[in-house]
UniProtKB/TrEMBL annotation:
<dbReference type="InterPro" id="IPR003718">
    <property type="entry name" value="OsmC/Ohr_fam"/>
</dbReference>
<dbReference type="Pfam" id="PF02566">
    <property type="entry name" value="OsmC"/>
</dbReference>
<protein>
    <recommendedName>
        <fullName>OsmC family peroxiredoxin</fullName>
    </recommendedName>
</protein>
<dbReference type="InterPro" id="IPR036102">
    <property type="entry name" value="OsmC/Ohrsf"/>
</dbReference>
<dbReference type="InterPro" id="IPR015946">
    <property type="entry name" value="KH_dom-like_a/b"/>
</dbReference>
């Protein structure tokens, strides 16, 4: 499946507040480093950990439906800890998944779908390729 995702971001008239747009979606992001007041919108790190959490429970829910497994609910808590020696990366990321209404073996099978199929998780885990292109506009 070749699924291209594109999001554009632009500054606003308020320092540290950004507008992000994707296909059919518009949302805000804040940067606590630049804003001189509390953030209202998620910051980039919160978006990253939210993407992991969302992908985890979406994968569990999808696999449960495909396998006709009755799940009362699912939750994911993602904890990302910055590397004190190198703040440009995380020292660790823990994705803690809870699946309600099933036994441990079933919960592990449903979680395996997330581990095997989530592009957010697997790109972070494998250190996927990334490039940066820059263009000045005078």
């Amino acid at each position: 499946m070749s699924d291209i995702q594109a999001v554009t971001a632009r500054t606003t008239r308020e320092a540290g507040r950004y507008v992000l747009e994707g296909p059919g979606k518009v949302f805000l992001s804040d940067s606590a480093l630049i804003r001189q007041k509390p953030s209202v919108a998620p910051n980039p790190i919160e978006f990253l950990v939210s993407a992991l959490a969302s992908c985890a429970i979406a994968s569990v829910e999808s696999d449960a439906r495909d396998l006709d497994v009755a799940v009362r609910g699912a939750g994911a808590e993602v904890t990302a800890t910055r590397d004190e020696a190198d703040e440009s990366r995380f020292r660790s990321i823990l994705v803690a998944i809870t699946v309600e209404g099933v036994d441990q073996g079933t919960a592990e099978r449903l979680t395996a779908h997330f581990i095997g199929h989530c592009p957010v998780y697997n790109t972070i885990r494998r250190g996927g390729p990334i490039e940066v292109a820059v263009r000045a506009v005078p």
